[in-house]
Amino acid sequence: MSITAQDRPASGQPALPVQSLTVAQDLAPASDMTTVTTASSPAPVPIRVLVQPAPAFLYLRPIRQIPAAPAGYAPAWNFSAGYSVTSLGLPSARRAVLSGMNASVSTDSGKRFGAKLDLGYERAPNVYTNGRPMSVLSYLVGPVLYPSNGNLLSTYAHLLVGGARVAGPFPNGNGGLNIGYVHRPAWAFGGGVEYRLSPAFGFRVGVDYLHTHFYNSSGAVRGQNDIRIVNSFVYYPGDRFRSHRRLIP
Question: Model-level pTM?
Answer without folding.
Answer: 0.64
